[in-house]
Amino acid sequence: MLPAIIILGSLGLLFGAGLYIASRVFHVNIDPRIERVESALPGANCGACGLAGCGGFARAIVHGSADVTGCIPGGESIAHLIADIMGVKAKEIDKHVAVLHCGGRDVANRFEYVGIRTCNAATLFQGGPKACLYGCIGFGDCAIACPFGAITMVDDFPVVDETKCTSCGKCVDACPKDLYDLRSFKKLVHVACRSHDTGKVTRSVCKVGCIACKKCEIVCQFDAIHVEDNLAVMDYEKCTSCGKCVAECPTNTILNFREERKAKGLWPVKTVAHSSPL
Amino acid sequence: MSYILLFISIVLINNFVLAKFLGLCPFIGVSKRRHEALGMGYAVIFVMAMASAATWVAYHFLLAPTDANLFFRFWGQGKAPADFDFTYLQTIVFILVIATLVQLVEMFLMKMVPPLYKSLGIYLPLITTNCAVLGVALLNIKDFNSLLPTESFLKTVLQGFGGGVGFLLVLFLMSGIRERLERAAIPPALKGVPIAFICAALLALAFMGFVGLTH
User: Does residue B118 register a pLDDT over 80?
Assistant: First the structure.
């Protein structure tokens, strides 16, 4: 009895004291700004900043390894909030939106798929039921993945609501066909196709697929669009959204978002003048 | 040679999770994503090896009735080492040692090796009361107590490390299976943990085949 009490008591005392000393020796000061920045963030932990959650992003900002404008869903307002906390001036943010690179609403099915109705599951089986192996399957994995309700399925085809999209990139990860890209809001012209099939094959399954006719390549004055591997690919560095390729495209594969965004009052982009106290 | 055999034995044949059924809680809890499974597995390797060494020291210098026992050294004049047999305290002392060690390691990593802390940090407190860690400590005493101190210590640390490696292996395999299971067509009643248990049982059966390695 007595030895047990002595051994355990002395061990407990020793370890307790040891841990106390260790906690003093290895004490880490935590910057109070981290907490303030974290409380200013949306808290969705979406990971669009490329860091592990909002906490990780807050630490990165305070340690100087992330930019105050890094929170993409938070947009300009939160960038300015964080800038105020950090005592710096926020740069203007280039708003991005998710763009679906497929327009094939009316692509027929090759077979009747009766498995689990998610795009991911369907892709595992013969690349999905659609006749176009590159295009949208239409089970709406992206709509489920979107934490902001910006993607809705209309007749089994996803529609992106650009007012709600925060360009967090969840849909980019969710789509097994890799049809989404985050594009600058200032770019209005997009190729709504991802098919690398030859023109003939594409034409046989989809009315609006890129047939690689190269008309866009010829008409473009800015050398911004090129047909690579049977698909027109936009070079967004050079594209001025002039819309000439849109008019030229015989299959209406290239879309101009200008009118649609104007109708919703999203275009032209208004830059909010904001002065942050330094 | 016996060291290599010991390592293979503890990783594959006497695997902690699938043969000894220790550490089943994290095995089911942290095996949903491969990335998390790896983080947990590395942390377990680390803690098991450290805990094996620490508990060996505690056992041999405080509890065991041998010449090395510190109580015998200081107060043992005219008495036999057998009078200082405190081995009945080993379970509670080991728990104390392991819990303290994990706390200490966590603090040390947070200050000195932040990158390692970031990858292991959230898993370390989970391991404090993991029965596989206590299991390996008790098993070490049972298996290697009769050996010479040097060999006993080396084998203890090796068994701790190997136990962690075996845990990582099984956890990683299981997380791969469970990632696939999420996309498989499973009857609703079996979805989630039930099917994971069935898979764990099949995995354990498969691992029983490794017993043949010894023949």
Answer: no
Does residue A175 sit within a domain? Answer: yes
Angle at A70 (CA atoms; ends A65, A73), nearest 5 degrees: 150
Instruction: Please check whether residue A13 touches B, CB under 8 A.
Output: no
What is the CB-side half-sphere exposure of residue B14 using CA atoms within 13 A? 16
Question: Mutate which of A24, A28, A125 to disrupt the B interface (most B C-beta within 10 Å)?
Answer: A28
Q: Counting Cβ atoms within 10 Å, is residue A91 exposed (0-12), middle (13-18) or buried (19+)?
A: exposed
The number of distinct structural domains making up chain B is 1
Tokens of B91: 């379970």
Residue B122 has pLDDT above 70, yes or no: no
Q: Specify whether A177 is located in the same domain as A235.
A: yes
Output the pLDDT for position A273.
Answer: 44
B196 within 8 A of B181, measured Cβ to Cβ = yes
Closest alpha carbon to B61 in B74, B49, B46: B74
Give the integer Cα–Cα distance in Å for B120 and B108.
12
The residue written with tokens 């008495």 in the block is: B79
pLDDT score of A175? 93
**Residues A153, A128 within the same domain:** yes
Give A144's pLDDT tier (boundaries 50, 70, 90).
very high
Residue A72's domain comprises 32-86
Distance from CA of A240 to the nearest CA of B (A): 42
What pLDDT band is residue A233 in, cutting at 50, 70 and 90? very high
Residue A1 falls within a domain, yes or no? Answer: no
The per-residue pLDDT for range A42-87, each reduced to its tens digit, is 887 777 777 777 888 888 888 877 878 888 788 778 888 888 888 7
Structural domain including B146 reads 16-214
Q: How far is CA B24 from the centre of its chain?
A: 12
* Cross-chain CB nearest to A3 (options B86, B103, B104): B86
Task: Give chain A's domain count.
Answer: 2
Looking at A23, A57, A86, the residue that finishes a domain is: A86
| Tokens 């966590």 found at | B106
A116 to chain B: closest CA residue? B185
Model pTM score: 0.54
